[in-house]
């Protein structure tokens, strides 16, 4: 009944999309103006490209390969704390990279828990820096994400099929072949593609754990061309390489990348009758414990070390905290101001559109946009004067694809359900938003705001290009403390950043749900 | 009053034609087999379903391209007639002003309508906390304040029990008598036709036939109507 001829916010929505495209094109223009093609790519840059692709491929394979058994175990076991664990699987997504890296170093680093244990039994120590470390951190971030995605796949198998399997007394192997393998064939390629694309544009992980000729990503090479050589021509050229590499891959991978569902129903385990044998249960238990440990130990170590470090924090940390809160607030406002009209516009069109926005977000890496704008701003005023607003804008652009993906499906449902009624009542424009869309989408708006706020709070990317000693954000300040080996102060900052990021998300998400009903 | 002039609606392989007048202060029942296009006809009158050709005239003025909110028509759908997040009073108030900025007099009108359908005590409740019958009354109170000359019912009471449905239909009948509106209601029940309708629009075989007096038609149905009635 809902006629697509009626559009919600067509002009504002198209305007927001146009603004986004313009911001990206402007950056691209700046990059093209300065790129120096003369010398071509040097061996060091070829090495960066090879490293980027190799670590992304291995990270994707490991994340998905390990997530399959963990998700399988979670899908068929019911235990106390399962719901909390499934919720926590969403945490790495909004966790500041620098905080996670700090936790990983505490667990896997030279004087970390694992090496302590290995040393005690006389085994050689493992290194967290270089190729291993980058892949380890990427698996830490993406294993939980993929586990959630696959859990959605398991949840999507109709419960009747498991009842049928029980009736036919299928063995776990038979259940896997008849029910689970076909589902994995559909979901696993998408998960692989998603992780691969995410890892291609990795910056903060490479900055902290990689570096040097053998572990530099293209994104990091852009930063280094800036920071160490102030070679804008080279940075611009690398930016184009990154655009082709990440953008091209995103374009190819887009059709595989799955929808990111929000929270729905993953905490309800299905009653299962298969795989009740003692050995299988033990194996599942071990898998779940390992997965939970891998996720939780670094976070616990951040909390433990951070508590004692809080008193060691210099005043600069508080200054940076204020900056970060300001940037996050601005970024949330911008994200919603762009995402809401865009979602209204996209939802009242036929399918498509969301994918294009998502593509733009994946293809245009933050450092590419940062480089482009730096080149444009530099002749006019000192870029560091604009460090914070530019960071907020770039953060908003990065959060936008997620926000739009979160908002469009419920907006579509809403229009399907209530568009005829709003039409007969003559509700348009602001009254339609005020009385129908905003109150009904409040939970999703809160969730999108929370995502955007947490991502911005923890972002260590474009700010690194623009910052000077005064205009720093908390993640950058923490990185500087780590660089100066002030580990106690860094630990305190890490805890503060962890609490603030999760707190911003929690406040927005709860605020959206509070008092809202179905 | 409302003139349907050579209406043609084509959707994929579905086709519906109509060419007749609806008069003031009359009650029409729309009957016909499932999928014949009863709801489509109502949707076209409201402006939800685009016309392939033909015109709709309201007292001589062409409203074919008018926005659904600007037509002299109000409609109750099968469901989703109320916003679940708004109170009963707000839901009714939207019938007067879509931005809900009501003047004191308009607020009184809302309360008078709620009083009329017996829901003033539940004015602050959310629809989800009301019974099916009370939800229907809320929607009818809104129809009352909208006071449009043509009221369309696309089986809004289908989910109610028989006794409650009759009660609602009687209430509708009283309300349109009070406001002087015409009523067009889709129904599957011959009893409803006998109880309420002055005239019957029979939809079948890609055509909405011109209204015919209900009593005569039901007494002496032509063959395809007899086949439908069974």
Describe this structure in words.
The complex is a heterodimer of chains A (518) and B (230). Chain A has two domains: 1-33 and 313-518, Orthogonal Bundle (MetI-like fold); 48-304, MetI-like fold. Chain A has 22 helices and no strands. Helix content of chain A is 75%, strand content 0%. In chain B, strands 1, 2, 3, 4, 5, 6, 7, 8, 9, 10 and 11 form an eleven-stranded mixed sheet that branches. The model of chain B has no long low-confidence stretch (mean pLDDT 92). Chain B has helices spanning 38-46, 88-93, 104-116, 132-146, 162-179, 190-196, 214-219, 223-229, and strands at 2-11, 14-22, 27-31, 53-58, 61-62, 73-76, 150-154, 182-186, 199-204, 207-208, 212-213. In chain B, α3 (104-116) packs across α4 and α4 runs parallel beside α5. The A-B interface holds A 1, 3, 5, 417-418, 420-428, 430-432, 434-436, 439-440, 516-518 and B 43, 46-50, 67-70, 73-75, 77, 80-81, 83-86, 90, 94-95, 98-100, 126, 128.
């Amino acid at each position: 009944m809902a006629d697509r001829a009626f559009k919600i916010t067509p002009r504002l929505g198209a305007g927001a999309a146009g603004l986004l495209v313009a911001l990206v094109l402007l950056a691209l223009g700046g990059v093209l103006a300065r790129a120096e093609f003369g010398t071509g790519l040097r061996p060091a840059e070829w090495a960066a490209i090879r490293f980027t692709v190799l670590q992304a491929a291995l990270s994707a394979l490991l994340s998905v390969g390990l997530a399959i058994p963990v998700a399988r175990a979670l899908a068929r076991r019911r235990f106390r704390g399962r719901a909390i664990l499934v919720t926590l699987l969403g945490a790495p997504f909004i966790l500041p990279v620098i905080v996670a890296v700090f936790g990983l170093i505490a667990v896997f680093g030279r004087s970390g828990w694992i090496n302590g244990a290995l040393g005690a039994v006389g085994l050689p120590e493992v290194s967290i820096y270089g190729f291993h470390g980058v892949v380890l951190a990427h698996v830490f971030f993406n294993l939980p994400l993929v586990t959630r995605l696959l859990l959605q796949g398991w949840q999507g198998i109709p419960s009747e099929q498991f009842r049928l399997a029980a009736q036919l007394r299928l063995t776990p192997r038979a259940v896997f072949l008849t029910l689970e393998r076909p589902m994995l064939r559909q979901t696993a390629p998408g998960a692989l593609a998603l992780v691969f694309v995410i890892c291609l544009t990795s910056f903060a992980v490479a900055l902290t754990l990689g570096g040097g000729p053998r572990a530099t990503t293209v994104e990091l090479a852009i930063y280094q061309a800036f920071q160490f050589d102030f070679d804008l021509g080279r940075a611009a050229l690398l930016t184009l390489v990154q655009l082709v590499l990440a953008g091209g891959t995103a374009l190819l991978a887009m059709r595989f990348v799955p929808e990111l569902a929000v929270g729905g129903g993953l905490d309800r385990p299905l009653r299962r009758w298969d795989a009740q044998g003692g050995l299988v249960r033990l194996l599942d238990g071990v898998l779940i414990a390992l997965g939970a440990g891998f996720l939780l130990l670094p976070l616990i170590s951040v909390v433990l070390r951070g508590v004692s470090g809080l008193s060691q924090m210099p005043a600069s940390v508080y200054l940076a905290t204020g900056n970060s809160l300001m940037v996050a607030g601005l970024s949330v406002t911008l994200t919603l101001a762009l995402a809401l009209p865009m979602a209204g516009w996209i939802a009242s069109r036929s399918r498509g559109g969301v994918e294009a926005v998502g593509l733009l977000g994946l293809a245009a890496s933050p450092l590419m946009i940062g480089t482009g704008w730096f080149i444009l701003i530099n002749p006019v005023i000192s870029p560091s004067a604009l460090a914070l607003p530019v960071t907020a804008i770039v953060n908003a652009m990065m959060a936008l694809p997620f926000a739009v993906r979160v908002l469009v499906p419920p907006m579509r449902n809403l229009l399907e359900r209530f568009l005829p009624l709003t039409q007969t009542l003559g509700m348009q424009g602001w009254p339609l938003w005020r009385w129908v869309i905003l109150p009904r989408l409040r939970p999703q708006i809160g969730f999108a705001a929370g995502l955007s706020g947490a991502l911005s709070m923890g972002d260590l990317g474009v700010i690194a290009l623009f910052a000077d000693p005064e205009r720093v954000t908390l993640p950058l300040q923490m990185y500087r403390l780590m660089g100066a080996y002030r580990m106690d102060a860094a630990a305190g900052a890490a805890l503060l950043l962890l609490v603030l990021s999760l707190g911003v998300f929690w406040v927005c998400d709860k605020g959206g749900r509070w008092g809202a009903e179905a | 009053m409302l003139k349907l002039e050579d209406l043609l609606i084509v959707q994929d392989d579905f086709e519906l034609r109509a060419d007749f007048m609806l008069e003031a202060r009359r009650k029409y029942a729309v009957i016909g087999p499932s999928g014949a296009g009863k709801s489509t006809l109502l949707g076209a009158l409201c402006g939800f379903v685009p016309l392939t050709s033909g015109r709709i005239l309201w007292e001589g003025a062409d409203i074919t391209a008018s926005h659904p909110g600007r037509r002299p028509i109000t409609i109750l759908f099968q469901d989703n007639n109320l916003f679940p997040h708004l109170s009963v009073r707000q839901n009714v108030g939207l019938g007067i002003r879509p931005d809900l900025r009501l003047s004191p007099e308009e607020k009184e009108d809302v309360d008078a309508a709620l009083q009329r359908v017996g829901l003033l005590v539940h004015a602050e409740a959310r629809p989800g906390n009301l019974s099916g019958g009370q939800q229907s009354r809320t929607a009818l109170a809104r129809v009352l304040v909208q006071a449009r000359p043509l009221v369309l019912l696309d089986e809004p009471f289908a989910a109610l029990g028989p006794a409650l449905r009759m009660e609602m239909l009687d209430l509708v009948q009283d309300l349109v008598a009070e406001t002087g509106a015409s009523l067009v209601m889709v129904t599957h029940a011959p009893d409803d036709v006998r109880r309420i309708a002055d005239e019957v629009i029979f939809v079948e075989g890609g055509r909405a036939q011109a209204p015919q007096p209900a009593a005569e038609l039901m007494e002496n149905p032509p063959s395809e109507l007899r086949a439908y009635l069974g």
